[in-house]
Records
---
Amino acid sequence: MAFLPVLLWSDLLVWLLVAGLGLAAWGVARTPPLRAAWGRVLHRRTGMAALVVLAVFVLIGLADSLHYRPRLADTPSPAEAKAAAGKPVYGVEVFSLLDVLLTPLRTQMEKTYSAPLATRAYAKEMQEVRQPDGSLVQQRDFPRLRHGGKHLGDNEAGRDDDVLRRVLAGAGCALLAWWGLAEILVDLLARARGCSRREAWHELWHRPPTSAAPAWDALLLALGGLLLLVVPLLALVPEYHVLGTDKVGQDVLYQILKSIRTALVIGLVTTLVTLPVGVLLGIAAGYFRGWVDDLIQYLYTTLSSIPGVLLIAAAVLMMQVVIDTHPHWFDTAAERADLRLLALCFILGMTSWTGLARLLRGETLKLAQLEYIQAAQAFGVSSWRILLRHILPNVMHIVLIALVMDFSGLVLAEAVLSYVGIGVDPTMISFGTMINNARLELAREPMVWWSLAAAFFFMVVLVLAANLLADVVRDAFDPRAA
Amino acid sequence: MLAYILRRLAYAIPILIGVNLLTFALFFVVNTPDDMARMQLGVKRVTPEAITKWKAERGYDAPLFWNGEAPGLAKATRTIFFTKSAKLFVGDFGAAEDGRDIANEIKTRMGPSLAIAIPTFILGLLVTVTVALMLAFFRATALDLWGVVTCVVLMSISSLFYIIGGQWLIAKVWRLVPISGYAEGLEGWKFLILPVAIGVVAGIGSSARWYRTIFLEEMGKDYVRTARAKGLAEGVVMFRHVLRNALIPILTGVVVVIPLLFMGSLLTESFFGIPGLGSYTIDAINAQDFAVVRSMVFIGSVLYIAGLILTDISYTLVDPRIRFD
């Protein structure tokens, strides 16, 4: 094989999560009340637009969750080749599908900082210039970048025209693609409703207030906005560093795209840890009461009375000692960084289940008094069966709302923790490590603003979409809101 | 009421023991006292005798949780866990790894932390309640809609960006205040403005939206309808009736954080170079100074429990319907 697939632990959990989501979607499609609730989410314009944006982030994250190690091409000598014939040699660097898609971004390194779309580096340096008479003269000037704007040759002044042309061409392609998508959507809608395409198009933009149809207009607008952003970017990426380069000359756009997976893993895998603990302890405390309730309440009061950062700090420091003392557990640096990421998820999960458990305990206390539970008890249904069949489905809306609302908080927490030095591994690209590295760059002269601005923009978009979705989900599932 | 508070205080003791047990377990699961001695002594001076001496000097020469060799009750008391945590309960925090007295350090660093935290807390509360009241007053108008949208955007921005952006814009570009630092007394005001302002702005988004919901919920109640039916002006209804009643959930909600103000804010203090308890904690985390981290965890838990009890008391003070018996 030309490559060795690598399944990192976080990959495994991410794909398990995807499988779980698929299963949940299947369940939702078969349960009319849940379908109606999700219908209300899609009915809201903000909900639909937030879902589209989040879907793009998730797709990037999933592409970054398929890892492999490439096979080393040249084996030094025939003897060694024979010795290693049974087991081919693979590189120690772990790549992902996203890395392959972004090969030009990943490999086109500059020497150091360069501004977005620049053709020359950020700092002057000595260089030899060949004069017309053939002699070499030393000059201090901004050196040309190795890759940024290389295709322009000597025509550096033509950069603005070139960028404009590429952006316009990209925007044109984006509009064409959008038009195509809109046509397909209208076609599907017209077929589903059995009306003409013209009517379907009109109804798409002018929804009657009573209609419960999904907000297709928001879907089209969000897609249009994303296409207008992404396609011109694609046109520029092969020749320029669209968001500039950082201190070691790495493309900032590449780092941003890699950060997305870290943020999603922190936000989603942590909830995977929180969920079973919080749900089980919460409903058990509310249903069994007595000493079980006392014990569980004691447990979460103790945990939540410790200031969160301190508990996380203590746990992460402990984890780091374990990782440092067992280097033989890890074949590659990526696996080590991955374990630390996972440990962080577990630690965050262990400190954040208390809120969910408290909410569920209160709700279960109320539910346990209702007639249908008493009827089940009178029939002799076992306690665990009552918990699973009668209580759990009736508190799921609280679980869902809590999970969606926690996501944005976790993404923000990762940045802060990485800044304090107790977040992800320093070698792992994340929004937190990017901000941490870029924090002192604002003091440089001239100012290096692009790393920070890019991290800011993408993080705000991600967290904003998550917050908007959380609001819509809460409105759709909270029975009190209706 | 008194009996209730006493019961709550008694309940705090097992929680604090649990907190201590947890920090202890977390730290000593991977770090044996021998490891600590080696790290603190440095690589060169490590000999078995030096380690034994280091442990004996600092009281780390007993077993961790259970001393099987000791007689009777001393089986549980002559251990590292008991000797180290029993002292915390009487306020004896011991010395940090660099030899300084932790209690003394906490006393001197409390001032700067409070100088930032109290103005941030009070101003923040005033500003967010005002904003929320305004949004509720203009409910279902364009102002309300865009106000809520702004709140959601504001709460989607990481606190790191508020600090970095504020420092850059106000201190570096406009040069209005020093970028960081701290001074005792009244001259220190110019160092405090920026961290306090950033703290207030960073908190507006989530709290203003939350308080707006409280106001709107209160405005749907019957007594508000009665007040309007009597012909009171909307402003009078808002200020005299809605504001006063909505302040009950708002105030009881924030009481729990008041004791924690002592701890300061980790991020603000470390970014602005303020010698408070927050930056003390961060330094201790980075230096892996267990004695300091443990003391701060203990204080934090005590303050949190105090906050919970204060919340309950404040309920009974502002709402006569609630009684604990």
---
Amino acid sequence: MLSTLHHPPRSLSRFFPSNTKSRHFHIKPVLSLSQPAADQPPSSTSPPPESQILSIRHSLLSREVTATQLAETYLSRLKLTEPQLKSFIHVSNNVLKEAQSIDDKIKRNENVGPLAGVLVGVKDNICTLDMPSTAGSKVLEKYRPPFDATAVKRVKELGAIVVGKTNLDEFGMGSSTEASAFQVTANPWDISRVPGGSSGGSAAAVSARQCVVSLGSDTGGSVRQPASFCGVVGLKPTYGRVSRYGLMAYASSLDVIGCFGSSVADTGILLSAISGHDRLDATSSKHEVPDFTSQFMSAVLLESKPLKGLRVGVIRETLDDGVDSGVKSAILGAVSHLEELGCTLSEVSLPSFSLGLPAYYILASSESSSNLSRYDGVRYGNQAAADELNALYGDSRAKGFGPEVKMRILMGTYGLSAGYYDAYYKRAQQVRTLIKKSFKTALHENDILISPAAPSAAYKIGEKKNDPLAMYAGDIMTVNVNLAGLPALVLPCGLTEGGLAGLPVGLQMIGPAFDEGKLLKVGHIFEQTLQGCRFIPPLIAEDIKE
Amino acid sequence: MASMLFRTIQTHPFLLYPTTLLRRNNAVLYCTLKSAHTQTAAQEEQQKPPQIKGSPQTRQAKTKTLDKISKDYETIIGIETHVQLSTLTKAFCSCPYNYGTQPNTSICPICMGLPGALPVLNSKVIEFAVKLGLALNCKLSLNSKFDRKQYFYPDLPKGYQISQFDIPIATGGYLDVDLPVEFGGGHRRFGVTRVDLNRAGVPLLEIVSEPDMRTGLEAAEYAAELQRLVRYLGVSNGNMQEGSLRCDVNVSIRPVGQLKFGTKVEIKNLNSFSSINRAIDFEIARQALLHSQGEDDQIVQETRLWEEGSQKTVTMRKKEGLADYRYFPEPDIPEVILMKEYVDSIQSSLPELPEMKRRRYEKMGLSMQDVLFLANDINVAQFFDATIANGADVKLAANWIMGDIAAYMKNEKLTINDIELTPEELAELIASIKSATISGKIGKEILFELMAKGGTVNGIIKEKNLVQIVDPSEIEKMVDKVLSENPKQLEQYRGGKTKLQGFFAGQVMKISKGKANPGLLNKILLEKLNAKC
């Protein structure tokens, strides 16, 4: 089956790039990040990305650069690009102050955390102390939580600086970030296109290097699909791997906080920082957290077949007719790349795959109808003026929620209602069990499964805004993974036509529960050996040229 | 028509008379303390109708009608009890929970339902639920889950309650109750349908009974037994005034012989066992009257409120169809899986429960009256048990506790834990009287001293030199002294006024400071009085 897929033979020489410097000590990209792209025409390729976090750490500790200088570089890029991108709802005023305090510590030879000076963007549905956290909704306009989400608390404790709150579809409900109550974010690869969603702001911010890494949330693909659209790495961890405490719930049984980075390494480092049990989240797992980054090897040290024997299953249903040809060919390119790396590829069928989409929309809407009940205008957020209790509830919610959120609350309320429960919610739960089972079988026969992250590359702003079903259909590649609770990594695997320099296509790798380590290892090798791709969007290349 | 009859009921002595009595003896009834009042009430209850004042002819007639009406119907009563658990913290966060604290002082992001906050189950809540489930002889669900019950209300921050819907933690148990002797006694077993963890925030257990009760008294005793149980288990203070134990009663009646249940009415605001009793009796009479008038369609499914002031139930809200709470499994709280070892360890750590205690006391030869009194309060029972353990005679210990000690506690408004007397000293006191070291009278004095100030029996005896005088020659001396000092009375006695013996005995006792052995004293006194006749 797969042998019929035609692909051009590739030279193994690309496993041994001419640049033989160890990436751990290669600090150049930090300040001259977009240099390679700037030197070349926009449509050209760029070498595989390096870990920005490790570079930052090295340059800070060797005192080549200060945290303040680093922060200034990012902030100025942010300032330059933000009017076009609108990836942030709120930018912190304390970034330079926090950077200064890291510099002071370094000056005093005090220990600084492994994320010291790393600028992190945080999706605005993740609570941050003393910073607005609106979930992209009018109902929470100006709301400032009295606590940090556990994931935020953990990155802060390791020295990271929260640069701001990124834009999203209201409460994470959407796939294009157009459903934000405040602004529409643009895709750095083509500002007439959407960045994907719902974590579009977090993906665009990393893509445009407005911050080093960012946190997003993934209920049905909200980290992976924007990662694919914006050409960055996105990781959806196993359900329970990362505490949800402080993540404003959309669908509690599906929600996870995920990571964005410009490289697999950064994504893994960020995951290590936020993973682990939290007594404030009863669904957070006590599963051991390994060092996800310890298996990373520099490309130069790789053998010729570094993934020899790895069984990779290509999910047949994800390469059906509904998938854009450009996406399909990029994925097939990735398939052959994996084969060259030594993987054994086979086709695998998940018969219940197509049922995932309706099941997801029933379950997610049902849970959201309940989770969003708390926004009643009584205790926080915008309150409508009313003489009577029911009017207060009704008006506060009517004025506070956007149309997409209202639609999902209505759908969910319907699905849970007496007389409909069995036909909708219960049936969807049964489908969920089937999906879990079929993934289990497939992952028994394969080490990882692969698929596109989305059936298309980024589409135009407004293109699907008035066609919710078309928008929902775009989630077909990702929702099943949430229903099964499995981890999945999305990383750039090629470009398809569109925009100034082509549009990125993301490859999704799905692994067994709590085996993010395997995905990151495979992803890292895939990324570091990938040539003929481009990782930096034209937007920042041009900005810096000017 | 209906309203007229309604008024008749309200003023009807059959209802009014006993209920006022019951109310007066509120605490007495269900704590099964001995009391003349209670017995009166009981007798009146049994000899229906009671004495009737006013125009006896007509009223008596009406009473008989009502009595007859009630006999034509069978009452079905089921109770939903909510028990607030005495955990140190709330059910789903680590905020302390105390009754009576200022509103909104013990709150955190979790109980405020702030965006992003998640509930985490307090393990003590599960432990208490398992305890109560086992104590109610229920079958435990080893896998139980939580569900969301959704509705909007200002005191419900998240817009839903975390509750248990289709899989309660325990099901299918029963509760054994001994009815008070005053009401003819009797042992009843009432079914318990389910025990579930109900409502977020303040940890609450719900206990749903089978519709097994037939009278207000049975219902009140069921509730009283539940209170005993939660107090024995230490899972709740069971205080009805604070609302730690709340009973919602469902009452319906049906013509005797009919299989189909009648329309049930829920009664709320029952703040004491006696109000449970009275509210149910009122409701039975109200429904029976409507039935007998062919107006049973006036009995609608509704929630009625018990009004303590007017002693009647009034409509609170009518059910407009079934509320759709859109229950679904709570995704934020994982399934609770009880391991067999965990359940076994709780089972083996259960204390002796009220029913077991009562059966044991019964076997010890105590009367049911005594049994009910002693087992009613866990602290009293423990005091009694400890006294027995120190070698005291069972019946004597019971008498002391139920007599002077209970009276003292009542007067001083103290509990048995507040008084200074220890079970060891009570046992010692009983032994000292039995061995004639002290007289019963002195014993009583010592008892009051022990209850008020503490100390030991022997210490007080020594300190006050209270050892009983049992030496006949010593008593004889005192008798001689009294006789010689009261020649006039002696003459009168010998003249035939023999009841003066009491006067002499009193005088001798006075001289002996109450220490003279009464038997010896009277024997010697009589000998002397009659000696020179």
